[in-house]
Amino acid sequence: MPFLQCIEPDCKAQFASTTPIYTCERCGGLLDLVHEVKAIEPDQLRQAWDARLASKAPADQSGVWRFRELLPEVEEANIVTMIEGNTQLFEAPRCADYAGMNQLTFKHLGLNPTGSFKDLGMTTGVTQAARMGTQNVACASTGNTSASMAAYAARAGMKAVIFIPSGQIALGKLSQALDYGATVVQIDGDFDDAMQLVRDITKDSPLYLLNSVNPFRLEGQKTIAFEMLQQRDWRVPDRIVVPGGNLGNSSAIAKGLHELLEMGFIDRLPKITIIQAEGANPLYQLWQHHRAGETQLKLQALKGASTLATAIKIGSPVSWQKALRGLWWSDGEVEQVSEQEIADAKSHHRARWHWL
């Protein structure tokens, strides 16, 4: 049976998966949901996952719950799903040429029900909330998280409460959240202030926190790696490149791949590369200390993070320890890009799709 475990090497405290906590009660470290993966037969699992592609059952049609042997335990009838996942891989030869690469493929996670990869985490997060009898869920957000949580909460008959930084939320996503019936609370400050506030409030209230500090959120998002490999006939790519904001997605992908490696499902990890904006680059700055040979690494929060890429405008990412762990597992890299580079790439992307 899966259980929660602190990721800190000197702690490793364990808790039941039904314990309503987000960080370790002993040392404050982040938590993993741990599966007994070494007891699973890879060939049988591969066959089961591939067979479900032809199934009409909602749990099998979901690009998350199709892989439920490595997800939180729940009865299929109690899964909160909107048939998320199933996002396609697109070959991008012109973008590969622009980037100076031989081959480049995109996994278009914007094709999820609310237009965001956050749906992959919300189906597991809200399902876990329902499993514990929670009726109220909360998050801090500048856009995607708010819309996704509100949609899945509405699907489950729950009340959603969203904390947003003043003037720093994508209006289209805010409109989605309001349409789904969420209560929106605007605060003075940036995303990091909103994140701290919602973490404080959910400690002593019936609100269930659904930002990426919640380990059940990341369980759903790790299926990005599972589905991508399935679409590639289980061939491991050379590199996976992920934008880095709160660092939940890169952490989740790394965890999923590491579980597959531990059980012998794959024989190597792809190099995970995290890209941050120059004005919101706390992990990149930390990584420079690692490159310089430092061993005692501590992320320094970046106050007043600023970038046109608003979804990753985060100066104090909650999942940085898990992201760092994934980089070590995969011999990964962290890079930063300037605002001009972001604008140039966006312009090239628009021109490519206009041409198509």
Short description:
The chain is of the alpha/beta class and 356 residues long.
Describe this structure in words.
By secondary structure, the protein is of the alpha/beta class. Among the domains are: 1-34, no CATH class; 118-213, Rossmann fold (3-Layer(aba) Sandwich), CATH 3.40.50.1100. Helix content is 39%, strand content 15%. It has 13 helices and twelve strands. A four-stranded parallel β-sheet has the order 8-7-6-9, sandwiched between helices. Helix 10 (248-262) crosses helix 12 (320-330). It is globular and about 45 Å long. The N and C termini lie far apart (49 Å).
Which CATH first-tier class of the domain at 118-213 would you pick?
Alpha Beta
The residue fraction in helices comes out at: 25-40%
User: Which series of helices and strands comes N to C?
Assistant: EEEHHEHEHEHEHEHEHHEHEHHEH
Q: Give the count of helical stretches.
A: 13
Determine the mean pLDDT.
93
Radius of gyration: 19 Å
CATH architecture classification of the domain at 118-213? 3-Layer(aba) Sandwich
What fold name stands as the CATH topology of the domain at 118-213?
Answer: Rossmann fold
What about the largest sheet?
4 strands, parallel
Structural class: alpha/beta
Major sheet strand order: 8-7-6-9
Q: Which ranges are low-confidence, i.e. pLDDT below 50, for 5 or more consecutive residues?
A: 351-356
* % residues in beta strands: 5-15%
Total number of β-strand segments?
12
Shape from CA axes?
globular
Query: N-to-C terminal Cα separation, in Å?
Result: 49 Å
